What does this fold into?
Amino acid sequence: MSLIAPTLQSFFTDRLAKQRRVSPRTIASYRDSLRLLIVFEHERTGKKPCALDWDDLDSETICAFLDHLEADRRNSARTRNLRLTAIRSLFTYASLRHPEHAALIQRVLAIPAKRFDKPLVSFLNSPEIDALIDAPDRSRWEGRRDRALLLVTVQTGLRVSELTGLDCGDVSLGAGANVRCNGKGRKYRAIPLTSATDPVLKAWLAERAGRRDEPLFPTRTGRRLSVDAVERLVRKHAATASARCPSIRADNLHPHVLRHSCAMSLLQSGVDTAVIALWLGHADIRSTNVYLHADMTIKQRALELTTPATTPPGRYRPDDTLLAFLEDL
It folds into this structure.
């Protein structure tokens, strides 16, 4: 028998931190996944986490844990697969250190990821974006901060972790205004700022009066906003904006929708998908193709190109008010 604890510790300190030099976000994600697994097995067997050995984490246990994530924690299949990725990474490392458990490890590594339906991305149109950005109360400090945060998010398409990681020194204003971030995969990139975003950020930086290494969007106490805090403020202002723009559904609006909205705005303006991939920090341009599927205007233009010349232009419109009402439902 060999205990898991020493291998688990060296997996984080040696494999991830020293050998692979993964980002702090990846380490945090793997830590959370493996902690959930260990707590699950501790509650199921009563064994202390430091006393667990590899036979306690066989393929049946891992499958039971994955089922627990979906059934009890209500995690999506995407989140389940993310947890499985962390487990696979640990067991791949363990296969080099514990050849005596090769059969058990191979059975765990053979557990497949779950396939799932991929819905079209949701995004906000221009009136909805305007309503959301105008929702914060600019008479309050938090409202001015939130308005600047929402405007930067919609215009740059930053991930929420990239947004909360911004420091005051990451913003350059004036000619060639841009914001720089350390994104996913430890890749640095700079995103240009529009003429509408520049003055808002300039006013916020003057009011913020922070040092270059301090967070751009802090809490009242000066600490960095958490991801949960950003999600809450987005839903809060979405609820306010829905009064002006009823098409906004506050319950389904999260920060990543603002990233999708940025991508769709660029796409509908005729920007090439390769440029959008660079803008968003996608490692593979295929990740950007999901926006092509969601953009009905592109498909509508393609349909118009195939329309026979004898077909009158325009789309069908009912000539009766009642039929028009039913058609628009």
